[in-house]
Amino acid sequence: MRAFAHLLERLAFTPARNAKLRLLTHYLEATSDPDRGYALAALTGDLKLRAVTPALLRGLMAERIDPQLFAMSYDFVGDLAETIALLWDSDRDEDVPLHQAVALLSDTGRAGLPAAIGGMLDRLGPSERLAFLKLATGNMRVGLSARMARMALAQMGAPEVKDLEEIWHGLVPPYQPLFDWIGGGARPEQAARAPFRPVMLSTPVDLDQLRAFDPADYIAEWKWDGIRVQAINDGGTRRLYSRTGEDVGGAFPDLLDALNFDGTLDGELLVRRGSDVASFGDLQQRLNRKTVSRALLESHPAGLRVYDALIWQGRDLRDLPHQDRRAILKTADFGSDRIDLSPLLAFDSWDDLAALRADPPSTVIEGVMIKRRDSAYVGGRPRGPWFKWKRDPMVVDAVMLYAQRGHGKRSGFYSDFTFGLWDGDALVPVGKAYFGFTDEELRELDRFVRNNTTERFGPVRSVAPKLVLEVAFEGLNASSRHKSGVAMRFPRISRIRWDKPATEADRLDALKAMIP
Amino acid sequence: MRAEQILHPTEAGLYCPPGDFFIDPIRPVPRALITHGHGDHARAGHGSVMATRQTLDIMAIRYGEDFTNTRQVAEGVTRIGDVSVSFHPAGHILGSAQIAVQPMRGPRIVVSGDYCRAPNPVCAPYEPVPCDIFVTEATFGLPVFRHPDPIREMERLIASMAEFPERPHLIGAYALGKAQRVIALARQAGIDGPIAIHGALQRLCDFHVEQGVELGPLIPATAADVPAQLVIAPPSAFASAWVQRFRDPVIGFASGWMAVRARARQRGVELPLVISDHVDWPQVTQTIRELSPSEVWITHGTEDGLMRWCEIEGIPARPLRLVGYEDEPE
Predict the structure, then answer these.
(1) Rounded to whole angstroms, how far apart are CA atoms A423 and A240?
(2) Does domain B150-273 have CATH number 2.60.40?
(3) What is the mean pLDDT of residues A68-73?
(4) Where are chain B's structural domains?
(5) Do A413 and B148 touch (CB under 8 A)?
(6) Chain A residue whose CA is closest to B249
(7) What is the ipTM of this complex?
(8) Which CATH class is domain B3-144+278-319?
(9) B139, B142, B144, B153: best mutation site toward chain A, by most A Cβ within 10 Å?
């Protein structure tokens, strides 16, 4: 538990992804089974334990401390589990194995739980108490995805991330067979039905690069602006995975119901109303929900546009050429009108395709996909067989308003910039960008911020509104959460307009007009 | 004489009418008694200053030799007007003292200033001084504050330096007291190699060494390439361009506030180290029990928590609501 508590604390304060990965890998290497497996599951949210309620914890404290002192403490600390971990009065500091804590939380009956939790808190030091309480309340909040967990595992031994992805969904905590495999043992059999298969990804391309290839060797189709998913019905077991292998089916029960076929399909998850495809903003309404209301299911119905098939009616198609897989899909019955096949584009030359790309029939298209007719379906991002040729980004000229210091490699540099557009005589913040510039430009921006600071708020400075930044972004949604009423997707600084006066920056109305 | 006639808060700070002096005044006064050298307690421009020899030296280092017209080294019991005063170690930083004020007739008042009861290799330990009225700080006056053993915090630092050997570790520590304590603790924990220090720490580190505090090999963190993995700097340095010379640093901060995660996050700290030069909750409550004063006055900090504790314990207490003192001064 001591090592786990230490790991949690480090992860909570470590912003950089690579540093997080190193911390996790070191922990997994240094920790024995089954504790490391439970830790991994706890971090990725896959450890299902009895959730201890805040009311139970408050009840424990009510017996131990004056309610006024408790209220003052909670008010100061701001987090219930942390307040209790700090307040708990015990000088014992045992290194209780994590699996004992897990067993306590999974095996203790409701009636015995308060005493069991109190007894465990008595044995632990403060950091371990916090780790235990976070485990008990099921609220780790350290920003660790299952994908990062697999990357950490891949750093420990021979199996690569894509190997781990193949078997991941058949595993249950504490993952003993997985760690045995990483340690040099046998590969675990894929036990689960409807397993995730590594997705084939593309590389970016432009017109100049395309000219080196013969257009006759390639097909092209629209690149839809939804969520790339793998949709599976394996003998009645239905799954929807994101392209990194996260199970996203919970948020899309309507689409799961529509998977009336036998196979594993690669496609784009979209909100569809009849033949219309709704914007990414509409799709976002459906994301990250534990439950979906009936009203939302009706107003924002999910559908699938199929790009490819990995397995169809029991047959693994991945080694076939793309054109053969496509021929099978063309005659396939997907069993629902929510699912259709992505149409191919007719073109004879790259210039033809360029013209199509420049004038797509829908705003929910973000470019074209170009695939070799003879390409097998290979997991990962092989260079060559598949290209994405995205539409040009949208741009606005905005004014830098605030700057925040970065972390890690950008320590000491003002590298996160909030920018705004004119609304009447005022500049309204519309977004934040922290990449797109070179190291040299970062030094220049940092110097500008330091020389033009008007106010300081901790790590944030407000700057005199006089530097124009050309901001490129991939899309725009209406948003009630932002003061400006709009939210940009992937904003980055495409140019620094040292030459342009702030008064000539764009107006908010101009940005709003770009909302599809 | 009643207690309020001996010592009471004014806008300039705690004032003693029978002795006609102020303790740690926040604006220039004719006569000041200073508990310790932190900037919010020891200010320049007083007519005369009485303090420990080390505190006077520290004030001269920080403000120049002309920080006051006349200096008086506090030694033994000194009569000032109608009261006697004496200085006693507070365990907070080098030279820090509590000031006991004894009238001819009436209650003995001890102004503890900032104090700490954890062992500190850079200063003399706190000494309990019996009194009728104990004037205490309440910087960490909530029961959530139980400062861990600082050596364990150092072990966390050492573990991080081993885990990220290519990354310099920059630890923020206030220039007077905390910085030297962190260095001394690092030595105690087994870091023998050179430790780099920011330029703002140089003179105060030199002074500690002159006073017999072992700090080991220190190198300036001013060159473009600093050949040490551990670097100590005042927290304000992290907002300056100075920090840009370090490639992918781990930023740490040594402070009692680091016990609370939200505070550490506000600072943008990657490695919070809970190292405090103030009494924590168990220490402040234990001290009050031990001294058993008839009344407790609370100068500054989170006084509500300590007020409530005194109420529960049946100890008369009141907040002085002195303004101008920071949580943990720079």
Answers:
(1) 43
(2) no
(3) 96
(4) 3-144+278-319, 150-273
(5) no
(6) A408
(7) 0.94
(8) alpha beta
(9) B144
